[in-house]
Amino acid sequence: MAATADGTEQHTDAPASPPPPGRRRPGPVATVVGFFGELLITVGLVLGLFVVYSLWWTNVVADRAADKQADKVRDNWAQGPDGGGPVSFDSKNGIGFLHVPAMSGDEILVEKGTSMKVLNDGVAGYYTDPVKATLPTSGKKGNFSLAAHRDGHGAKFHGIHKLAKGDPIVFETKDTWYVYKVYGILPETSKYNVDVLGKIPKESGRKKAGHYITLTTCTPVYTSKYRYIVWGELVRTEKVDEERTPPAELG
């Protein structure tokens, strides 16, 4: 701005600003780093979705399947003597229900076998191999050995670590409640240790034949490296009444 002869001010144009510098292209190293950064984010998202699928959605699907099978069992029992005889007891739908208050408030359907096809339906399965379980309904002494998932696919034994000595384990059939009490726990053992399933589970401290129950599942949580074992012993049985009143241990 400059003064003129008549005392007025004259505006002059300011010098033009220099043009902004051109945007620099990232170098090859930066390009590679950016690519791998985006790739890691994508992989992270995929892994996150897989975890959601494994730990949540498989539970939803398994619970639906287990509920459907459980309804079939109870409907069969409700038919009376003609629909609930020995033939239907060991049916493909399930043989009874496990109740473990300290571990879960849910009833757990028990089916034959411990294959992934069986356990992935959100149930517990009794062993047929490598050691055959002794069903309590047989009246014979032996070990009613069971397995279930700890995570995913219903995760029916997820809370097995909550069990302590003296806690009840109840198995419900059409006509009888079998009441067991926990007496032994093995927090970690090899998945190849089949002795824990023996008719006399000597590793539990028992030396004589009896009426035992064994719960097995994977450990640590979210892995299948080892097995977590809980042993119980039958303390009494109770006949099922018309109202299917649960025993005192489940009250």
From TrEMBL:
Keyword Endoplasmic reticulum: no
Keywords: Hydrolase, Membrane, Transmembrane, Transmembrane helix
Keyword Lyase listed: no
InterPro entries: Sortase, Sortase_Class_E, Sortase_dom-sf, Sortase_E
GO molecular function, one term: hydrolase activity
Disordered: region residues: 1-26
Pfam families: Sortase
Transmembrane segments: 32-56
Origin: domain of life: Bacteria
Active site: 149 (proton donor/acceptor), 218 (acyl-thioester intermediate)
Identification of the protein by name: Class E sortase
Organism whose genome encodes this protein: Streptomyces fungicidicus
